[in-house]
């Protein structure tokens, strides 16, 4: 593997492992805040117990996320120097704000929640839960602001300096609230809520199957199934809107995700298929005519551009910009103004960025399969949650072993769906680091060595694998230990409680 391939693999691997922990952080913090608010309203101590238990699991997940996320920022300097030099003026601001505002807000109030119980008022304890949720999701927002700028850049100008051509920020709010930031944030955060919903459903199902902390598990399962049903349906809506923006601003990503090689009207959706990139063909045993056009543009006859035609279009753009550069350089020789110099730098960057070929494309099949499996899992989540709602209405959800085992073994599925969504977004953005401005191949640290990167890749694989194994074992151990724990609850304050854990309501004075 050459320097570029190794640098890409290292960042992809670290991002993949780090993103395992991100969705649960986003979603579980909100769920904990909701359960704590329910306790404040109902005074049912089971809600309080549930929120404390879940916050301990959240803390483990948070620690793993921090440990795996810190190294990613260092890679911008070590492996992606050219990228950092090109966009550092813009990309650095959201990352700094995320650390200074969101991270410290989240970590500070998490400590208050975990260690302030009984030391601060219940209202302040509830407030701290909401601050953890706010911090978690603000963190996600600023990271997605940075990422969305890479996908659809706005609020910048390209200038030529002594260090070379680079992008400079001209409008902070235009860069922050660009074309896709809001819907990308909603879609990603909602995926986190689904992850949290299924996580809580699975853990509560485990308690019910083991007949441990039954009443708390029933309460948690009820809240989780209502919560998960709402966010699962919202994911379909957000996904549809997000797809529309991808079609409008990133047509090459859409073409790869749908496996469309040649431009066509009434383009079909291929639910199951395989992409042969060498032959430039997508094998489709099943195809639904017009659906890709409808889902992308809300028109069954809309034209969807294919990969081959888009590459030709981008190559023509590159030639057009090269012609403009030659013309402007002649004007600059006669009248060397700063405006002409900036425009020349801008057109040079665009000419280089749009000069792509088929060899610059990522694995189209990875984008295609990731996108389709993500969508399929999204509809599966809707089905499972609506099944749970039906059983809840019937009053049989707590005894339905099939449903309980289904949600228990489905805990990992939203994590997988989130990773697939990340693959679709980031692999699908290739061959650019910054859409239409900087190719991935031009962002690498050219003076680095393959040996250095290979050493760090092996080190990261060993360390990150160890972190993941410890994380899984610790989470599993905490849940199992809690299952055997005697929960201290004042039964006189628990309404309609038959059993708490292994103890009946006849027990007085708590356990």
From TrEMBL:
<dbReference type="Pfam" id="PF01654">
    <property type="entry name" value="Cyt_bd_oxida_I"/>
</dbReference>
<dbReference type="GO" id="GO:0020037">
    <property type="term" value="F:heme binding"/>
</dbReference>
<feature type="transmembrane region" description="Helical">
    <location>
        <begin position="453"/>
        <end position="472"/>
    </location>
</feature>
<feature type="transmembrane region" description="Helical">
    <location>
        <begin position="402"/>
        <end position="423"/>
    </location>
</feature>
<dbReference type="GO" id="GO:0070069">
    <property type="term" value="C:cytochrome complex"/>
</dbReference>
<dbReference type="GO" id="GO:0005886">
    <property type="term" value="C:plasma membrane"/>
</dbReference>
<keyword id="KW-0175">Coiled coil</keyword>
<keyword id="KW-0408">Iron</keyword>
<keyword id="KW-0249">Electron transport</keyword>
<feature type="transmembrane region" description="Helical">
    <location>
        <begin position="221"/>
        <end position="245"/>
    </location>
</feature>
<feature type="coiled-coil region">
    <location>
        <begin position="297"/>
        <end position="331"/>
    </location>
</feature>
<feature type="transmembrane region" description="Helical">
    <location>
        <begin position="371"/>
        <end position="390"/>
    </location>
</feature>
<keyword id="KW-0472">Membrane</keyword>
<dbReference type="GO" id="GO:0016682">
    <property type="term" value="F:oxidoreductase activity, acting on diphenols and related substances as donors, oxygen as acceptor"/>
</dbReference>
<dbReference type="GO" id="GO:0046872">
    <property type="term" value="F:metal ion binding"/>
</dbReference>
<keyword id="KW-1003">Cell membrane</keyword>
<dbReference type="InterPro" id="IPR002585">
    <property type="entry name" value="Cyt-d_ubiquinol_oxidase_su_1"/>
</dbReference>
<keyword id="KW-1133">Transmembrane helix</keyword>
<comment type="similarity">
    <text>Belongs to the cytochrome ubiquinol oxidase subunit 1 family.</text>
</comment>
<keyword id="KW-0813">Transport</keyword>
<feature type="transmembrane region" description="Helical">
    <location>
        <begin position="46"/>
        <end position="70"/>
    </location>
</feature>
<keyword id="KW-0479">Metal-binding</keyword>
<feature type="transmembrane region" description="Helical">
    <location>
        <begin position="90"/>
        <end position="115"/>
    </location>
</feature>
<keyword id="KW-0560">Oxidoreductase</keyword>
<feature type="transmembrane region" description="Helical">
    <location>
        <begin position="12"/>
        <end position="34"/>
    </location>
</feature>
<protein>
    <submittedName>
        <fullName>Cytochrome D ubiquinol oxidase subunit 1</fullName>
        <ecNumber>1.10.3.-</ecNumber>
    </submittedName>
</protein>
<feature type="transmembrane region" description="Helical">
    <location>
        <begin position="191"/>
        <end position="209"/>
    </location>
</feature>
<dbReference type="GO" id="GO:0009055">
    <property type="term" value="F:electron transfer activity"/>
</dbReference>
<keyword id="KW-0997">Cell inner membrane</keyword>
<feature type="transmembrane region" description="Helical">
    <location>
        <begin position="127"/>
        <end position="145"/>
    </location>
</feature>
<dbReference type="GO" id="GO:0019646">
    <property type="term" value="P:aerobic electron transport chain"/>
</dbReference>
<keyword id="KW-0812">Transmembrane</keyword>
<keyword id="KW-0349">Heme</keyword>
């Amino acid at each position: 593997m050459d320097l570029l391939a190794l640098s890409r693999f290292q960042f992809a691997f670290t991002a993949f492992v780090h993103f395992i922990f991100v969705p649960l952080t986003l979603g579980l913090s909100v769920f904990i805040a909701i359960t704590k608010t329910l306790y404040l309203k109902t005074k049912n101590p089971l809600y309080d117990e549930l929120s404390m238990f879940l916050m301990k699991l959240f803390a483990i997940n948070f620690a793993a996320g921090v440990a795996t996320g810190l190294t990613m920022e260092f890679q911008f300097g070590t492996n992606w120097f050219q990228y950092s030099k090109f966009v550092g003026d813009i990309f650095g601001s959201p990352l700094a704000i995320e650390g200074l505002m969101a991270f410290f807000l989240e970590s500070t109030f998490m400590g208050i929640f975990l260690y302030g119980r009984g030391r601060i008022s219940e209202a302040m304890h509830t407030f701290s839960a909401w601050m953890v949720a706010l911090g978690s999701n603000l963190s996600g927002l600023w990271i997605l602001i940075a990422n969305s700028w890479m996908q659809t850049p706005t609020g910048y100008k390209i200038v030529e300096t002594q260090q070379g051509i680079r992008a400079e920020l001209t409008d902070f709010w235009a860069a922050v609230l660009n074309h896709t930031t809001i819907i990308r944030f909603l879609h990603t955060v909602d995926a986190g809520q689904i992850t949290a919903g299924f996580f809580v459903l699975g853990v509560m199902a485990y308690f019910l199957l083991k007949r441990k902390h039954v009443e708390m598990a029933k309460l948690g399962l009820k809240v989780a199934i209502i919560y998960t049903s709402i966010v699962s349906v919202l994911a379909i809506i957000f996904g549809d809107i997000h797809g529309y923006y991808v079609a409008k601003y990133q047509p090459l990503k859409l073409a790869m995700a749908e496996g469309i090689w040649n431009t066509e009207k009434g383009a079909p959706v291929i639910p199951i298929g395989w992409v042969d990139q060498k032959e430039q063909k997508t094998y489709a045993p099943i195809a639904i005519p017009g659906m890709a056009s409808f889902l992308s543009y809300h028109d069954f006859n809309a034209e969807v551009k294919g990969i081959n035609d888009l590459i030709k279009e981008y190559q023509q753009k590159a030639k057009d910009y090269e012609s403009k550069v030659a013309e402007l350089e002649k004007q600059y020789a006669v009248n060397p103004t700063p405006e002409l110099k900036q425009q020349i730098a801008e057109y040079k960057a665009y000419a280089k960025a749009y000069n792509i070929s088929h060899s610059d494309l990522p694995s189209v099949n990875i984008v295609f399969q990731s996108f389709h499996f993500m969508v399929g899992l999204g509809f599966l989540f809707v089905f499972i949650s609506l099944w749970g709602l039906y059983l809840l209405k019937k009053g049989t959800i707590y005894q339905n072993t099939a449903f309980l085992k289904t949600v228990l073994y489905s805990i990992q599925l939203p994590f997988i769906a989130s990773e697939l969504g990340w693959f679709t977004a980031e692999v699908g953005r290739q061959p650019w680091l910054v859409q239409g401005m900087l190719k991935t191949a031009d962002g690498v640290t050219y003076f680095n060595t393959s040996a250095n990167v290979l050493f760090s890749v092996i080190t990261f694989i060993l360390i990150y694998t160890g972190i993941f194994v410890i994380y899984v074992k610790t989470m599993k151990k905490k849940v199992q230990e809690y299952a055997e724990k005697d929960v201290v609850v004042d039964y006189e304050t628990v309404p309609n409680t038959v059993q708490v854990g292994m103890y009946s309501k006849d027990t007085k004075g708590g356990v």
